[in-house]
Predict the 3D structure of the following.
Amino acid sequence: MEQYMGSLPGTSMKPILRGEKEKIREEVVVYEEYGPVRMIRSHRYKLVYRTPYGPHELFDLEKDPDEEQNCFDDPEYRNIKADLFRRLEKWFEAYTLEKYDGRKFPVRGDGQMERLEKYGTETTVFKSF
């Protein structure tokens, strides 16, 4: 099995669980990938990017905590969207192994059935219908 050789991106959540607010970073960013969908969430914003065609979503969680207003095409959010997208791409460039890049695997509704390392092909990893 191929191993990632760099440092890992994770940070312990223990200070948050213990209520040690002075040890919590000002901004916590969550990165997620599900097939061709990538997401970055900061304290205020959430960008969902579906490769290659969309639909893409951007939410201002301070103004819209229920995520009802998609701001992706709103010119007011152009710079925020660009910054979040750059950060998302930079993260995946640093931590994605090419052969396991989720953008290459189809999403059919049941999710990932096995660890990618176990088989390494879309036909064995994702359930077919």
